[in-house]
Amino acid sequence: MKASSMSPGRGIMKAFHKTFASDSITPFQTRLCLARFSTSSSWRARSEKASSKSRPGKSKEKLIERDFFLSVLSASATKRDAKTYLSRFKPPTTPQPTVLPDSEKAISKIVGKDNYDAWRLNKTGVNLGSLYTPAKAIEESPVFAQQPVPQHLVSESGDPLHVALIKIRAPQSLNDDTLSGIGITLSQLVRLGLNSVVVVDCEDEDMSNGPDRTVQSWRETAAIQAERVAAAIERHNNAGARYIDTAIGISPCLHEVQSTVHVRGGVKVQFPTLLLKPLSKGAIPVIPPIAYTTETQKIVRVKPDDVVLALTREFSGITARTVKGTEPGKMVQSIVDDVKSRMVQTSLDRVIVLDPLGGIPAADRPDGAHVFINLEQEYEDIKKQLRVEKLKESDRKIHWALDRHSKNLELLQRALALLPPTSSAFLTTPEEAAVSAKATASKRVDLPGVSTRRQRNPLIHNLLTDKPVVSSSLPTARLNAGTSTTPRTTPSTFVKRGMPVSIIPNPRRTPWVHPRPGQKQITLKDPNIDFPRLLHLIEDSFNRPLNVEHYLARIENRIAGIIVAGEYEGGAILTWELPPTIPVPSQGTQEARTRMVPYLDKFAVLKRSQGAGGVADIVFKAMVRTCFPDGVCWRSRKDNPVNKWYFERAVGTWKLPGTNWTMFWTTKDVVRDGQMFNDYFAVCRDVQPSWANNKAVVD
């Protein structure tokens, strides 16, 4: 008799293809989705079994399942993105505890005691021997208990619990449908390996923050809204949500180990177990901005941003530890015991702010928000810009909104300063976070023949790619066009600690203009340039050795400037090129100098940084918006795989006849200006390569 059931993997695959038979899904996208879904199916089954709430009907369950698949597939993750995600966010597993035999427990106890005695002897110089060791008769005395004594369990799982810290501002302004959509998104993040902790922020422009608003009234408002959020998540997350209002404490910072991290107001996580237990089971804690004083257990109101920072410190392991005792040995031991009591290892990967105001405003973007912020490079400039905009406005509401934007930016900057560089932050509207991936009628009328589109959820896309929904280096004109390759932008801002950007010379002090007669041009031997590292960057990126002597001779007195990202992780060398069509006697004239072509001679990113961290976007954006805002041109081999990336960022392209080159430019109206086009063409055709090897690459 044949078995009526099929293997889980085959069943999922069959259901997947049946569900999406009419959709255009690539095999790679299928593998990405199933790699995550199939490996976590057993974990979800356990969560569903443990859940006590009623389950939706089968038809609704299928729609939820389809929505989950579409959310993953619509993220447009590349092969490199998927590989990075799958390696970092491994499927959640339930660790199998190991029972230590009595002999091993005894050995462990002896070894631990010997280590402690050695440390004590080294620190104090006094060997106390077994003075504080329990007597053998006491140690071996029988234990009388009503229940079996629990075994000593040791977890074998070394994988950290990946966490996203999410702040929802002004939930009282959101309707139930929006909160339900957010609940769906957060449940999908859990299924993709990212557990969430939600902080509720009820502050808005109309809600008074003064003393006339009592703590009791504030507590009632915060509790009602936090419970609304928890109920919305509960309906969609298998493991549910937990409303927790007793985990946060506040103290005057006495009797605590001093930390290099500023602990503003003494807000801290007083009882981390209340958060870690539900988190480890897939539940989502929802926390109101309420704290208890550590001295008197009095309820006080705290700033939601301070709660977010306290949680950031807790999940990153940077916390002020309470010290017990006055003797050095006891103080150290109390800290060690406190650390050991935190058995769940966490990795805070995302800090997310859902604010009705949306992303950080930017006047040059089509949706009015920064797409990507490299804090190391842009934080101070954006803060200054917000202050300037505030001075220009007299409207009270605009003043309040700009203050809120500034606080959001400060919160993300302070949080990411506590986290490793791989962590990131995301700022978007609750409506965008609630977007479903289901195909819906498109409201756009500028796309002929297109009636439906998949709405891309920015949080799902960001988790799978660690990138913004659209690239920050795309030209704004292309974003406004709404082409199929560049989806309509959303009011979201992706934030990373990022890397500093060095531009030599500084365009703010020395604009990059055509060189004047007798003007000294910079060279690659400039003391501000680390030439060996720059050379390594070029050769590593192009995978070819450079003929240094030939190259330096070719660009002598032509260098417009150098862009370096981070520790030479990416960079660009830009030059002023004289069109070869200008006769030699006329090359020193003013007319010839004005015809010099701004040329991107080298654009390089280290192999280990390619496709990660936005290094290429950072360098390219600095080039086209700071160094050469009026336009620049460059060339690339016709078979270069990077050309797709170039095509998206260029205003125009041209395949040079009789060569293996494609010319790109960001200058406007090049084709209409016949002389400019011919100058660009001549420069890109005649620049001589400077590679040391004779590799079989047709230039």
TrEMBL record:
Q: Quote any Pfam family the record assigns.
A: NAT
Q: Where is this region: Disordered?
A: 40-59
Enzyme Commission code: 2.3.1.1
* Annotated keywords: Acyltransferase, Amino-acid biosynthesis, Mitochondrion, Transferase, Transit peptide
Enumerate the Gene Ontology biological process terms: L-arginine biosynthetic process; ornithine biosynthetic process
Q: Which cell locations does it reside in?
A: Mitochondrion
- Give the EC class as a word: transferase
Q: Name one GO molecular function term.
A: L-glutamate N-acetyltransferase activity
PROSITE patterns tied to this protein: GNAT_NAGS
Domain of life per record: Eukaryota
Primary localisation category: mitochondrion
Query: Matching PANTHER family, A to Z?
Result: AMINO-ACID ACETYLTRANSFERASE, MITOCHONDRIAL, N-ACETYLGLUTAMATE SYNTHASE
The protein, known as: Amino-acid acetyltransferase, mitochondrial
